[in-house]
Write a structure and sequence with these properties.
The chain is built from four helices and no strands. It has about 60 residues and is mainly α. It has a single domain, classed as Homeodomain-like (Arc Repressor Mutant, subunit A, Orthogonal Bundle).
Amino acid sequence: MMVPIRCFSCGKQLGGLYEQFKKRVEKGEKPEKVMDDLGIKRYCCRRMIFSQVDLIDEISKYKS
């Protein structure tokens, strides 16, 4: 999966937080609370995590 390492707007490091976010949300926690717990407070950083789409599995099916 290709998660942005840093927020495009402010530069905060986000790459290591996405896996934790994804696991906790899949367990049933509210995304807002998980982001608060992980220290993702800025709107720009939240946008980077919320808008992440895992397309690498879909793309890897096709060989060039």
